[in-house]
Amino acid sequence: MDFEKFNKFGSLLLKDEFVLSYSGYASEDVLHSMGETLRQRLADHTEDKGKIKHVFSVFVELMQNLIRYGAEGPHPTPKTESRQAFGLIMVIQNGPSIEVMSGNYVLKDEANDLVNRVNKLNDKSADQLRALYREKLRQPPHEGSKGASIGLVEVARRASAPLSCTVEDTNQGYSFFMIKARI
Amino acid sequence: MTNLNIVATSRTPKITFKTKAGTLLIEGESYPEDVTGFYDPVFAAVNDYLKSPDAKLDVDIKLIYFNSSSARAYGTSGYVGCCRRRRCQGIDQMVLRW
Known about the structure:
Chain A is an alpha+beta fold. Chain A has six helices and five strands, in the order H-E-H-H-E-E-H-H-H-E-E. The longest helix of chain A has 21 residues. The longest helix of chain B has 16 residues. The two termini of chain B are 20 Å apart.
C-alpha cells in the first residue's frame, strides 16, 4: 500500500470528533483491549453514564457476533487451525449521538436471514423487545446458530433509533454484512 | 461441598461462595471469553449445595456490566431468578435475596 492510500484511510477517520476503529482479524483479545480503551475515552468524552453503558454494551455484542459468526471472507488463511473472522468495527461520534458500526463476511445465504432478523427487531416496540429478551434468556443458544439471537436483541434494546443494516455481495460466495446502531 | 473463591479479572467477576454461611457473592464485570467455561463450575457447585435439604442461599449480585451471554448463563441456570425481575434488565447493580 502506498502512503497516499494509507494516509487517506487515516484522514477519513479523523474527520469525526470521536472515533475508535479496527479492521482485520478479530479476536476476544482485540475486543477486550478495545473495550477498555473505549470505556476510558467515552468517560473523558461524556458524563452521561447511561450512554457510556449503552455504547459499551452495543460494542461488545456486535464484536462478539463478529468473532463468533463472522467468516474469514474472500482471503482465508488455510494454514491457521482455528477459524478467524475478518471484520471492521467503528465507534463514531455523529452529532449528539454515537454510532457503532460493524461489518463482517457471512455466507450469501445467511446474509438475507440476518437482514430479516434485524428488520423484525426494528418492528418491535421497547416492551416487545424486553419481552423477547427475557424469553431468550431462558433458552439455551441454538445449535449452529448463525447470526446471533440474544446479542442482536440486546443491541436493538440499547440503541436509541432503529438499527440499520445492508449487505454487499462479493463474487466469492460471501456477502459483507454491515450493521449500524445509534445511541 | 465446594466453597468458591474466584478472583475478579477485568472481564470476569469476583465470586465468593460460602457453603457454611450459605452466601453467594458475585461482584464486578461479566463478559467472559468463554461464558460456559466460567459459569458452569460455579452453578455446578451451587446446585450441588442446594441438594442438601436444609440449604439456604443468600445471593448478592453486584454486576457493573454483564453481556447477553452472561445474562443467558444466569437465565438458563434456573435458580437465579433475577431474569424474571425487572431490576435485572440493563441496570447498574442488582441485589437479590431469597
